[in-house]
């Protein structure tokens, strides 16, 4: 290990860094951080194991990082592989690689173009997914936009929800995305649409396995297609092509596409 100054801790080969306050912590080799650290920036391009809490302005991982405790960062970028056992808090989180957490996430924004998996609950102002997002306890945000694979075991609660599912390049191993319960003001769920000939052939071959699945979808304005659900409830509800719904409940207006299969429709009295 080589230390450039009292403020910087840099590992180019193999070494350890003790508990303390630093300016920058940079690991391009194989490093182990023994305890809590407080710094301006953490940059991992090699392999690093953090045994204590990490509090930093910037957390940048293009290599492999393992954090055994909490991480608080104003900005976090994961283009490599990062695993965090504790809670994640702070500002913006950008994932273009692989990101796994065991604790809750409470941040300003999350942008996933790679793969993110957590066993905790996810809270943010804005969540954008263009890759894969899996949560064990659901998500809470103001704006949720997704175009990829989604898997949740809890509630997705957002003011505005826009989900684009299925399509060539976004088909998960089990063939569909699943969120048990979705609640929001405006909810729009649609199938990925691409003019690419391979996408059209792929969609035709696997048409029956491309439906988005949910148990309950409830909002003020709900518009869905290629969706399978037990209950869809809202003020204004539009059931689009190829939906399979057990029960639709509405208070103001309902529209159902001829190709949709709906067992029961009820108007709720205010």
From TrEMBL:
Pfam families: Bactofilin. This is Polymer-forming cytoskeletal protein. It comes from Gottfriedia luciferensis.
């Amino acid at each position: 290990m080589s230390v450039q100054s009292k403020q910087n801790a840099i590992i180019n080969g193999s070494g350890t860094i003790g508990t303390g306050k630093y300016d920058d912590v940079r690991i391009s080799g194989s490093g182990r951080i023994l305890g809590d650290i407080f710094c301006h920036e953490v940059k991992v391009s090699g392999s690093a194991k953090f045994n204590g809490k990490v509090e930093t302005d910037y957390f940048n991982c293009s290599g492999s990082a393992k954090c055994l405790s909490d991480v608080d960062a104003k900005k976090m970028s994961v283009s490599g592989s990062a695993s965090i056992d504790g809670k994640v808090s702070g500002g913006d989180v950008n994932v273009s690689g692989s990101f796994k957490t065991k604790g809750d996430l409470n941040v300003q924004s999350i942008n996933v173009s790679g793969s993110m998996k957590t066993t905790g609950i996810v809270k943010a102002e804005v969540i954008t997914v263009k890759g894969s997002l899996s949560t064990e306890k659901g998500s809470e945000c103001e704006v949720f936009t997704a175009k990829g694979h989604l898997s949740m075991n809890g509630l997705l609660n957002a003011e505005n929800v826009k989900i684009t599912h299925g399509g060539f390049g976004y088909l998960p191993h089990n063939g569909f995305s699943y969120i048990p319960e979705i609640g929001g003001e405006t909810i729009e769920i649609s199938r990925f649409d691409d003019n690419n000939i391979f996408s059209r052939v792929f969609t035709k071959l696997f048409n029956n396995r491309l439906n988005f699945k949910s148990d309950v979808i409830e909002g003020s304005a709900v518009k869905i297609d290629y969706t399978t659900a037990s209950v869809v409830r809202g003020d204004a509800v539009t059931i689009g092509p190829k939906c399979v719904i057990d029960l639709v409940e509405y208070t103001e207006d309902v529209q159902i596409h001829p190709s949709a299969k709906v067992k029961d429709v009820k108007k709720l009295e205010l």
